[in-house]
Amino acid sequence: MKLSASEQERFKKLSKDLLNNNEVLKMQDFIQHGKVTTYAHCVDVAKMALHLNNILKMNADEKTLVEAGMLHDFYLYDWHDSSVKVPLFKMHGFTHAKKASENAKELIEVDEKTCKAIESHMWPLTLSSVPLSKEAWLLCIADKICATKETVFRR
């Protein structure tokens, strides 16, 4: 997916503080899907969410959308460690959205709307965390698109 020139400009403007934030940059130390770092995945999801907002004419809040996209997997640990045995509902897929939201609130100081979007991005896996805003729905869809692409094509 390639952003239009105007989308690219808006993305740069809205993400500039996060792209170079020392805490956010720690996501470069972790692999998300295939060979893609968590940082690169979050950048791709933020861009995809912004693009979907544009082509679907959703008029979602772009600041919230880009922040939530950049921070939706801001959990800062390696989820691939299979030596850690936990019950099903304590596994990464069920818990990382809440951890990412907590980190975003504590380390970046994002607002509640952004936190709620982050917390619901794993729906429908996390049945109790239904996306309730346009931003949350766009984030959820963008994450599924990017995760599928990264997993299938193992780039």
Question: Mind sketching the topology for me?
Answer:
Elements: H1 5-19, H2 22-25, E1 31-33, E2 36-37, H3 38-55, H4 62-71, H5 92-108, H6 112-119, H7 134-153
Antiparallel strand pairs: 1-2
What does this structure look like?
- This protein is mostly helical.
- It contains seven helices and two strands; from the N terminus they run H-H-E-E-H-H-H-H-H.
- The protein has a two-stranded antiparallel sheet.
- A hairpin with a 2-residue loop joins strand 1 and strand 2 (36-37).
- The longest helix is centred in the last third of the chain and has 20 residues, at 134-153.
- The protein is globular and about 45 Å long.
Give a brief rundown of this model.
This protein is mainly alpha-helical.
The percent range for helix content is 55-70%
DSSP helix count?
Answer: 7
Oligomer: single chain
What fraction of residues sit in β-strands?
under 5%
Instruction: Look at the structure and give the mean pLDDT.
Output: 90
Specify the overall morphology: globular
Question: Distance N terminus to C terminus?
Answer: 14 Å
Structural class: mainly alpha
Q: List how many beta strands DSSP finds.
A: 2
Radius of gyration: 14 Å
Strand order of the largest sheet: 1-2
Succession of helices and strands: HHEEHHHHH
**Low-pLDDT segments, ≥5 res:** none
Largest sheet: 2 strands, antiparallel
Keywords:
single chain, about 160 residues, mainly alpha, two-stranded antiparallel ribbon, globular
